[in-house]
Amino acid sequence: QVQLVESGGGLVQPGGSLRLSCAASRFTFGSFSSSTMRWYRQAPGKEREFVASINSLGDNTIYANSVKGRFTISRRNDMNTVFLQMNNLKPEDTAVYSCNNGVSWGQGTQVTVSS
Questions:
Q1: Cα gap 83→26, rounded to integer Å
Q2: What are the angstrom distances between the C-alpha of 46 and each of 1, 37, 63, 76, 94?
Q3: Is 84 exposed, middle or buried (0-12, 13-18, 19+ CB in 10 A)?
Q4: Mean pLDDT, the chain, whole residue set
Q5: Which of 24-28, 56-60, 107-111 has the highest mean pLDDT?
Q6: What is the radius of gyration, based on Cα positions, of the chain?
Q7: Could you tell me which of 79, 41, 37 has the C-alpha nearest to residue 58?
Q8: Pairing between β-strand 10-12 and β-strand 18-25 as defined by DSSP bridges
Q9: Within 10 A of 49 (CB to CB), how many other CB atoms are there?
């Protein structure tokens, strides 16, 4: 079973930056590089929402309107890892961020934006 492990979350002031990582393991050889990867987030008391996605080659990305222009998704297929660079963070970005390969979910990493 594929395992996804997120890291990089923390407490940051408004306007700050964080870089999240999602490391994948137990993929069959070559399958990570053929998988679209997605980031989602869930704030307390709210539904999980889509944040960003990246196709297998890394040349097609999609973002939620709320993060467009501030977040950048990228991937390193040689490392089986997908990243989410988050800049100009706002309090409303506070949530648990999780990655997904269409089947499996990671445990999530907490991002808190507060002064």
A1: 18
A2: 28, 22, 19, 31, 11
A3: buried
A4: 94
A5: 107-111
A6: 13
A7: 37
A8: unpaired
A9: 13
pLDDT of residue 34: 82
Whether the Cβ atoms of residue 7 and residue 20 lie closer than 8 Å to each other: yes
d(CA 85, CA 72): 5
Q: Say whether 35 sits in a helix, a strand or coil.
A: coil
DSSP bridge pairs for 26: none
* pLDDT(28) > 90: no
Interatomic CA distance for residues 56 and 27, integer angstroms: 14
What are residue 91's phi and psi, to 5 degrees?
-55, -35
How far apart are alpha carbons 58 and 108 in whole angstroms? 22
Tell me the C-alpha distance between 18 and 108, whole Å. 15
**Type of residue at 78:** D
